[in-house]
Amino acid sequence: MAKTTEERKSVQVLPDAETGATVVGAPTWLLRLMAEEDGVPPYWSRYRDSWLREFVKRPGNDLLAGTIATVTAKVATTGWYLEGPERTANIYRRILLQRSDFGAGWSKMLQPAVWDYLTQDPGGWLERIRQGKADRQGAAIGFAHLDNAKMHLTGDPENPARYIPADGEEVLLHRSQFIRIVDSPAPDEALYGVGYCAVSRALTTARILMDIARYERERLSDLPPAGLLLLNNLSRIQWEDLEKQYDVRQRQQGNKVWRDILVAFGLDPALPLSAELFSFSQLPEHFDKRTTTEIAIYSFALAFRVDPRELWPVSAGTMGTATETAIMHIKAKAKGAGLILTDLERALNDGLSIPPSLTFHFDFQDTDEDKQAAEIALLKADFIRRLTEPPLGGEALLEREEGRAWLVRQGLFDEEELLTFAPEERAEDVEQAKALARVDMGPRVRAHSDGRVVRLERAPQQWTGWTAKAAVEADDGKLHPRGRPLAAWPEGKAVAITADDVARAMRKWDRDMPVEMRGLLNAEPVTEGVQ
Q1: CA 372 to CA 303: how far, in whole Å?
Q2: pTM, two decimal places
Q3: Whose CA, among 51, 82, 456, 504, lies 20 to 30 Å from 299?
Q4: Which H or E run includes 155?
């Protein structure tokens, strides 16, 4: 089967579907040994990462696994959008949404990365698939999940990691080839940014719940609990024969869980037969499973930085009232999934993932938060407006332009929306004149992950404080500034940008870029200034 462009350019050694995948990690005997001794490998080691993966999957870890799945699903299902030129936004929306992880899609790529972020101390990894080793600048051509078990840190800022596949040669990775998100990075330089994941923080609570679950399983089964059994007036051989007869009878009757009563008769009537069991494990006094579970939920919520009610919905009782719920909801906005979304957003906008003309945003909507933000913005705007209005018989504290500048500093308006243009201003030097010719990549849009496309009004642009109406089209078909003539640049040649120059640059772009990236640019010559 032919490989896609992303599969050919990826550093990963993908398993052959015909031969099957191989398991990578610590040796099986070592994992079994750690599981049997029930000891936690010390922080930090590669064995600890393997042990944590196995620990999450153990019986009795239902609440821990459910918490991981809840946070993972919340991140993977959060909407997002790309803002920028329409054609570029549509291309990269398709790359992220449909072609990520070699065609599996955005959710399939993101879920294992977030799972590693929550369960592995080194964090979660995403590969930026690039054209080759020399391609270290600009946008990637695809994205895929990288297994933390195959990633090894080097400590080199330029080449921070190695990818070591099950079969094949290891690959030294440049920082432009991957995205790494880490939960609570350690300050110790020797750890190379290894963190302390949520499962590590919740380990003690999870093991307590596992012990309770194991105790309950033993109590509900027909097997005797672990302990010391003292028998009187019955020899060891007699007891073993009695057990064998009992097991044979139960198998014949087909009883596997709930069995008949085992009956033993004393041999000497003068010495009554008695048995006394001393259990090795017992629940603490005044044990309440509901209370213990809710305390564990609080501990998991603290470790995963989420609202406890996202894990254990309770309308009343020990977990608080409706007012407390609202307060906790507000406090949790900057934690948990929000931190993961912020790290991913910054990584995708670092100039090495998507084109610089695009901006990636998670579309995390919260009506309560939006309402509070709108109310605060209205109070700020009203306060600034009052300062610009002169009182009766007095003078305003602020000029109108000062008030508008204050609105910009408060983030209530974009600076570009407040610009005013003086049509008679002219360019005064060559560089300002050159800046008035631009290559337009199409109308700006907001392309959402759900398929919606919102067209945005093109904002007015300003170069070094100068405004529009500074260039005219001469008879020679070239752009010249109003005012004094162009200086020679380079010597003997006038500075001018023609339609042929733009077309030549676009052809060079299409020639150097892969097929998926061609045709992004289109030219819009400016003849009467920038609008």
Answers
A1: 28
A2: 0.69
A3: 51
A4: none
Contact 456, 417 (CB under 8 A): no
How far, in Å, CA of 495 to CA of 482, rounded?
14
Q: H-helix or E-strand containing 418?
A: none
Q: Tally the C-alpha atoms within 13 A of residue 324's C-alpha that lie toward its C-beta.
A: 11
Burial class, 161, CB count within 10 angstroms (exposed 0-12 / middle 13-18 / buried 19+): buried
pLDDT digits (tens, 9 = 90+) for 91-143: 999 999 999 999 999 999 999 999 999 999 999 999 999 998 888 988 999 99
- Lookup: tokens for 22: 């191989």
Return the closest-CA partner of residue 290 out of 325, 318, 328.
318
User: Which tens digit of pLDDT belongs to each residue from 432-468?
Assistant: 544 544 445 567 889 999 999 998 865 444 333 333 3
Supply φ then ψ for residue 232, to 5 degrees: -120, 140
Amino acid at 225: P
Q: 3-state DSSP: the chain helix, strand, coil percent, rounded to 5?
A: 40, 10, 45
Burial of 271 (0-12, 13-18, 19+ CB in 10 A): exposed
The amino acid at residue 281 is: S
CB burial string 68-95: b at 16+ within 10 A, e below: bebbbebbbebebbbbbbbbbbebbbeb
CA atoms within 13 A on the CB side of 11: 27
My answer on whether omega of the bond before 106 falls inside 30° of 0, hence cis, is no
Three-state DSSP class for residue 99:
coil
Which residue's structure tokens are 């008679």?
424
The domain spans of the chain are: 227-279, 365-418, 421-531
Supply 488's token pair. Answer: 């020679």
Distance of CA 333 to the CA centre of its chain: 15
Does residue 503 surpass a pLDDT of 60? yes
